[in-house]
Amino acid sequence: MYLENSCDTILFDLKNYKIKKRAWTEMKETHRFSNRDIWKLLLPLMVEQLLTSLMGMADTVMVSNVGSEAISAVSLVDSINVLVIQALSALAAG
């Protein structure tokens, strides 16, 4: 009687394992977002980061004729500006 119960338990566990394994492989194959959806979200973010860098570079170029103090001030403000933009972007992303 003990052997029958243990064999039944082993067979039951094997069936559950197969069911769980099949469910796991089916779950792994499904994705919440497609690659196209990811790129639709990623492309505007990449453009925004590029434009932010270009804005800082344009500011530095505009004040480069004034002097080294002005370049230093612009680079200081630009780094703070980038920090604020990154923080707000992180908050917006969730």
Describe the structure.
The protein is built from three helices and no strands. The protein has 94 residues and is an all-alpha fold. The protein folds into two domains: 1-30; 38-94. The longest helix is centred in the first third of the chain and has 28 residues, at 2-29. The termini are far apart. The mean pLDDT is 77.
Short descriptors:
single chain; 94 residues; mainly alpha; 3 helices; 0% strand
Number of helices: 3
Helical residues, percent:
over 70%
Q: Count of DSSP E strands?
A: 0
The first-to-last residue Cα distance is 58 Å
| SSE pattern, N- to C-terminal | HHH
Supply the helix-strand structural class.
mainly alpha
Average predicted confidence as pLDDT: 77
> For the report, how would you describe the main beta sheet?
none
Query: Strand portion, in percent?
Result: under 5%
Low-confidence stretches: none
Rg of Cα set: 29 Å
The rough form would be described as elongated
Number of domains: 2
